[in-house]
Structures are given as structure tokens and as C-alpha cells.
Design goal:
The protein is an alpha/beta fold and 262 residues long. The protein is built from ten helices and ten strands. About 3% of the residues have low confidence.
Amino acid sequence: MSLLSLKAVGHRYPGQRLAALSNVDLELAPGQALGVVGESGCGKSTLARICAGLVLPSQGSVHLYDEQQQVLASSARAPIHREVGYRRQFYRQVQLIFQDPAAALSPRRTILQTMAEPLKAFACFAGEPLALSAARLLGQVGLEEALLHRYPHQLSGGQRQRVLIARALAAQPRLLIADEPLSALDVSVQAQILNLLHELCERLDLALLFISHDLAAVSYLCERLLVIRAGEVIEQGRCHQLATAPEHDYTRRLFAASGFVA
């Protein structure tokens, strides 16, 4: 049973001659980790935003399943269900971790104020004080409670990224979408965030859509890989299989350029 399913999804931004995505099919099962790789500008971030419900595809459909119930179907013909209950159910189950933590956090809000927003919206920890719920979430990502009263500029890049992950966990999602979550971090911090995502997904049984240009990071987190070139999926399969015996020359060149060895 799929958790997330994309069927023939395409998207063209207004005023753009070329499509950002064309005829993309994707299946993600509960608890599965899927990596998405490709060159800059190939459509990876557009795909992330479509899967997160932030962008409607120009064509095709996106489905999110809860047990046997389809809770979202979006396409040019059948846009996202407008009822508040359906939208809230979708955004509670799917959370996006943005690429740049400095840009994704309001400089005018303390970490507690940032954490309070999803806690209030989804009422996942109803019955206990917001500060206690926020502290519990920070603890899950390895941060101290004392950081709740600080502002983003008072945190390091790695700490800000952990706050974004904690904010995503506040909704108790079933799927995390991480869009280049390592690109704004120092190399020394990247491994810590990778290990954190790996540990959280295993412990909480979360599905993960991990978008990156770092093939070593993708192969560490994900059992399956989807390769995009110029908005089109050209190959997909198990990471080890694509690393050792790719069918497409583009995939072969991606692995060769990265220096990754399976």
C-alpha cells in the first residue's frame, strides 16, 4: 500500500517556456526512504513542493493515503480539496524541511514561538503546556530546553536545522520531505544532521523523501533512488543497483562526478 503516489505529474511555471517537471511517476510506501537526485535546476525542489502540497501540478495527480482512505487528490482537473479538514489532515501527515534554515525561521520569533505555531494548529500534544511540548521536541533532535527563549540568529546553522526538524515533528507526520537539508551547513555538521534524520525515521517509522545532489548522503539514508534530468525521471531503483549497474549514461556520469563508490 502506497503512502504517497504521483501519476504523470507535470508542472510549468507561468511565463516559462520549458516545463519544470514532465510526466513524473512516484510511489512511496509507509516507512520507506526515497532519494531524489539530479543536477541543479532539474526540478527537484518543484517536486518537493508538489509532494508537500505547496504547489499544484499543472497536470497529473498526487494522492496521499491514510489507511484505506484517499485524503488528497490534486491535478489540473481536480485541485486540492478545499475543505479545511482535508487540508489540515494532509499537512499534518506531510511536513517539509526547507533548504535554508536561516530563511525558513522568522527572525522576530523566539524558538518557542516558532514551535508553538504547529503545536497549536494540530493540537498533537493537547493537555500539556506548549513550552513542555516544545522542549520535548527539541530533546528529540538533540537540543537543550534553554534554546526555546533564543532567536534564530543566536543559534548555529546546525541548531537552526534541528529546530526545523523539530517543528516538522510537532505535527506528528507520517512523511518528511527534506529538500537539500545539508546544502546550507558546514561539512562538519552535515553528518550530524544525516545521522539525526536516519535515527528519527527509524524510531518514529517515518517515510522520507530526501532530495539532494549528494549521492553519498542519499545512499546512506535511502534504499531507493529516483534520478531526474531536465524535469523527467530517467531512472529509478535501489541505490546499490543504480550505483553499480546504471542503465542510463546520465546516472553513470552523476555517480562518476560525485566520486561515490558503492
